[in-house]
Every structure is written in structure tokens, then in C-alpha cells.
């Protein structure tokens, strides 16, 4: 991913950007939609995480997913 701008840094903060380190594009799209509607960044992150918890992305996220270090399933959203 790259970002190019014309040096107008004051406008850079108004461009919604969502970065996901995993290939769960549905979660990224949901977070982007949320932040584009002027929701808070925290709400956008929560909505993105929630998508993967419901869809059980990669079968490691959400109910029945991989346990954390204490042996429990941890839900992030």
C-alpha cells in the first residue's frame, strides 16, 4: 500500500484510511464504511473486528476460534 499526496498535509487527516494486517477484506470494508460515515475511529475498529467474530474469519477468530494463552477464546470487539 502506498499513499501519495501533494504536500497539503492539512488535508491528509481528513482522508479515511483503514489498514488491516490480515487478509480479512470484509472486516476492512466494514471499518472503512463506518469511519467514512464519520463514526469514531474506535467505533470503526469495533465494527471491523465484529465482522470477523461473526464470520469466524480464518476459523481462528470468534466463537470456536483459537484460544489465547490462558486457553480461553478472546473476542476483541
TrEMBL record:
InterPro entries: Ntn_hydrolases_N (IPR029055), Peptidase_T2 (IPR000246)
GO MF, one annotated term: hydrolase activity
Pfam families per record: Asparaginase_2
Domain of life: Eukaryota
Protein name, entry field: N(4)-(Beta-N-acetylglucosaminyl)-L-asparaginase-like
Species the sequence originates in: Thraustotheca clavata
